[in-house]
Amino acid sequence: MASTRPLNQLTLIHGEDRFLVDRSVKEWRDRARPPEVDVEVFDAPGRLNEFRNAVAEMPLFDPERALLLRDPPQLTGSARRGGADPPERLVAILSELAPTTLLCLVAHAKVPDRNAVLNAVKSKGGSIIFHPAVKGRELRSWVDREIGARGLRLGAGSVDQLIRVAGPDLGSIASELDKLVAFASGRPLSIAEVRMAVAGDESTGLYDTLGELLGSNPAKGAESVDRLLSEGRAGQYLLAILAGQIRDLVMTQAYVKTHGSSSGLAAAIGKPDWQVERLARQARSVSPALVAGWLAALHDVDRKLKAGEIAETDGLRLAVLRAASEVTAERGRRPR
Question: What is the C-alpha separation between 251 and 111, in angstroms, rounded?
Fold first, then answer.
């Protein structure tokens, strides 16, 4: 049920789970959106001059204005690197907030307790929403609540199946539950029907593969592929899904290069917001040339598989191992 309480003029949303942060931001945007114009979004600005002008200006066409400042380095401590304005600059800007402007600050990470901006929001009576990582029993409880919120009636063992296939990524679990709503059409589903509906989608497991490949230890991407193959997943099918995900990454990098940010990307490529957030984050962690090379390599593996030149599992393993090595090498060449 949507809240009927008026929005606080100043809101800070942060947390360790990107999906929950994005969900809270969507709820804020739906309530804050002015009748005539959309919410104005500022993506990760290091320098705050343009944002400051928007904060201080009175709206011209609407009685209210809504601003969203997403992942500014002043919230996470990274402002001290790369020439960004310090947190104290953002604190000063908050004091200039026009009375008819609604402002939401967002961080896809936990803002440190001693952060100057966090303390300024508290002192001004702002609203602070924090989403910790959801794990263990809390994850099961969250899935149960999401099932109830959608009116689903699922057989015993369904929660375990969803967590095994899609967990612990809350965005993937939510996507699977939405799929089950369409599949059920109001009727109860047995555990066998749940398995049939969600187990055939290997893409959730491969999100871990791509995420680990681009994470702090790229070799974990190869371990993820080994795990999926050892579970009996079809190598050809995994190859097709991974190629599709890398193709999305190529499209994301091209869009950001052309438009300067990921704003509008979800509509452009037809992906949900939580997935676009992940793609945009991954796109910044690797060069476009490297990603394009992976796509070409996977197409070559597919050709060799169909020609019988390479074993089904070997082709995928070798491609991901090579990609992990290339990520590590590329990072080693970056200036420190």
Answer: 31
Residues 38-57: what's their mean pLDDT? 84
Average pLDDT, the chain: 85
Q: What is the CATH number of the domain that holds 28?
A: 3.40.50.300
**Based on the domain organization, do 277 and 181 belong to the same domain?**
no
Residue 157 domain boundaries: 136-200
CB atoms within 10 A of CB 174: 20
* Residue 201 binned pLDDT confidence (cut-offs 50, 70, 90): very low
336 in any annotated domain: no
Q: Are residue 225 and residue 194 in the same domain, yes or no?
A: no
For residues 224 and 237, give the distance between their C-alpha atoms in angstroms, rounded to a whole number: 15
Among 200, 225, 244, the domain boundary falls at 200
Q: What size, in residues, is the chain?
A: 336
pTM: 0.62
Q: What are phi and psi of 22, to 5 degrees?
A: -65, -35
Last residue of a domain, one of 86, 101, 131: 131
Cα separation, 279 vs 75, whole angstroms: 22
The backbone torsions φ and ψ at residue 8, rounded to the nearest 5 degrees and listed phi first, read: -65, 145
Contact 115, 109 (CB under 8 A): no
Q: Which two tokens stand for residue 222?
A: 């190869």
